Amino acid sequence: MFLQVLLCCISALLFVNASLPKIKFEYKYSFKGPHLIQADRSIPFWEYTGDAIASDENIRITPSLRSKRGAVWCKNPATFEHFSIEVVFKVTGRGRVGADGLAIWFTESKGIDGPVFGSNDYWKGLAVIFDSFDNDAQHNNPYISAFVNDGTHTFEHQNDGSTQQLGGCLRDFRNKQFPIRAKVEYYEKVLTVFINSGLTNNKDDFELCLRVENVQLPKSGFFGVSAATGGLADDHDVLAFLTHSLVPPGQQVVESKVAEEERKKYEKEFDDYQKQLEQAKKEFQEQHPDKAKEVGNDQFVGQGERELQMIFEGQNLIHQVVRDLSHKLDELLGRQELVLSRVSSLSSGVQVPQGSGTQGGQPVMVDTIKRHEVERIFNNHAELLKEARDIRTLLNDVQYKAGVIQSGLGQVHQGGGGTGGGGLTAQMSMILHELQENLRNVKADVTNLVQQPQIGTACPPQTSCVSPVLFFVAIGIQLVIIVGYLIYRQSKDAQAKKFY
């Protein structure tokens, strides 16, 4: 039984391997940095047009300037019917929304400058479009879609070609940490598009975007990439374009033979470059003997490592800040609990009665202070401060009235002219001075009481004593009565003197 299962598995694996196509890398239809351009700023087997800018690392199809178009096309038409291409690119911009987008082409003839993402309309072949701008205001961009045109249809920009597409998927490909990878496969009339969203550095982290059957493409065509900007602008950089031909099982792989003259030319160029490199190394060793040791590539930090280090440092900084905030929050919570415990211990907390389910040796729990009790304490303190201010105002009024009475008595003393009345006036002045001195002392005590800082103590127990407000009001009334009596008595004495 085990042998039968094993034989079935082996036969299934052989059948699957026999049905898979053979893959061959096509270097004449590919490019990849570094050392992308030659001395004359050209790219082997490729040509770029429009506003495209070629550098040693990548090709910038369009810079982040408004109304720019650019493209890069392979010089030679593909001689294989089935293919798999992988395009590595980055779309970066300052704005939250970008424009217009990028397109990958496989057309019967080379494209020219036009309105469809930097290439011409009415093309004949395949276009995989990465649309950044939402023209139809449906909030469905950035969007990836595939189109096949037979050369008779125009691209509908007003609705982003939604009625013409074979399929698509909604993926955000702008401003990603790692480059975007798009893999387009066409095999046995089946078109498949895979997308690596650039969230990780894993090159094989692809996800299916679309799969369409019964797709008719030209048997021979040109590969290309184009891009365009409009009112908004993004940088569209292509880092690599890798092409593989797919040969169905049973067919012979056609080996492309290099012409003898071309082979000799390449060998001569390689030998010359090798000699120049060795000569440069030798001259450097003679000029710098202390720095002539071998330096490996592992001692240099690449762009990816630098970006990863920056991200790691930023994450560490964020983690440290969050940790410090957490410590500070813990300290605040601890202080709050300490204050609440002290307030509850100082306040007259109500003890929780011991229930029937408690044991005899269990300690009696004391209820902690509640929020409304704390608010009541604060309200009572505010009321006490308000009453103290009222008492202070009342004392100021009494002092003012006493001063007015004293000035009136001084005028009476000047108008009386008698010796007997002078002794009485001096006695009244002495009494009034004593009253003013006592009032100043009381006022100073009240001022100190008002200016004392708030102490988080509990309210004192209620007693049967007279309240401070009633006490000071009674003192004020007594003072008014005494002063009035003295004035009345002085006036009576003055009338008696005039009578005699």
TrEMBL record:
It comes from the Eukaryota. Keywords: Coiled coil, Disulfide bond, Lectin, Membrane, Signal, Transmembrane, Transmembrane helix. Residues 1-18 form the signal peptide. The chain crosses the membrane at residues 469-488. It is a single-pass type I membrane protein. The keyword Ribonucleoprotein does not apply. Residues 23-246 form the L-type lectin-like domain. One of its GO terms (molecular function) is carbohydrate binding. The keyword Ubl conjugation does not apply. It is found in: Endoplasmic reticulum-Golgi intermediate compartment membrane. InterPro entries: ConA-like_dom_sf (IPR013320), Intracellular_Lectin-GPT (IPR051136), Lectin_leg (IPR005052). One of its GO terms (cellular component) is endomembrane system. Residues 256-283 form a coiled coil. This is L-type lectin-like domain-containing protein. The lineage of its organism: Eukaryota, Metazoa, Spiralia, Lophotrochozoa, Mollusca.
